[in-house]
Design brief:
single chain, alpha+beta, three-stranded mixed β-sheet, three-stranded antiparallel β-sheet
């Protein structure tokens, strides 16, 4: 029937219009920016880098593998790999990003960088107030701006962060287990009783 789509659209509009007078959630006006509506846990807006411990330089999980830079559809991630290695938060020598920049004017919050990262080093933030007064260089988020602690990650994404920590702990335990078993001394072989010589038959 001609016009059915228009009637359905008007019904949706009428239902929302009427609901704005009776539904409790619609009766309250949030006085932004003094007040802010709580964001759902799965909300995502812009990537950030996770570091463990208290030092963002020593505890940064990123090892500058540059997978996120290669997979980024708008090519807004710029990484320079370090020439040397330095101990991470557990003391293991690792490469690190000498520079790690993301252009906020190009990033489209697709989360592909998060999905391809093998070290759980980059996640999506909930911060959405990213406007700047200046153009060009001010729109480039540096490593120091992107680095945030694992505690911060637990605050904004508690369930996801708990799952990530459990996965990393299991992977670390799996790596230690073969090393421990290889270092353990082999058990001495049980003594073998001597075999008496066969007696010749007549």
């Amino acid at each position: 029937m001609i016009g059915t789509g228009i009637l359905k659209g008007m019904a949706v509009t009428l239902r929302n219009f009427a609901g704005s007078y009776f539904e409790k959630d619609r009766l309250i006006t949030v006085q932004y920016p003094e007040e802010r509506s709580p964001l759902p846990e799965n909300y995502r807006n812009f990537p950030f880098l996770i570091f463990d411990g208290n030092d963002p330089n020593a505890g940064l999980r990123c090892v500058a593998c540059q997978i996120c830079e290669k997979e980024c559809p708008p090519q807004c991630i710029y990484i320079t790999k370090s020439k040397d290695k330095k101990p991470d938060y557990i003391g293991k020598p690792q490469f690190y990003p000498a520079t790690f920049d993301i252009d906020i004017s190009v990033c489209m919050s697709c989360q592909i960088c998060v999905e391809v990262c093998p070290f759980e080093a980059i996640k999506m933030d909930k911060v959405y107030e990213l406007s700047r007064r200046e153009r060009f260089d001010a729109l480039l988020m540096r490593k120091s701006d992107l680095a945030k602690s694992n505690d911060y990650y637990h605050r904004i994404h508690p369930r996801e962060a708990a799952e990530v920590d459990a996965t990393l702990a299991a992977a670390a335990a799996a790596k230690k287990k073969p090393a421990t078993s290889a270092a353990a001394p082999a058990a001495p072989a049980a003594p073998v009783a001597p075999v008496p010589p066969a007696t010749p038959q007549a």
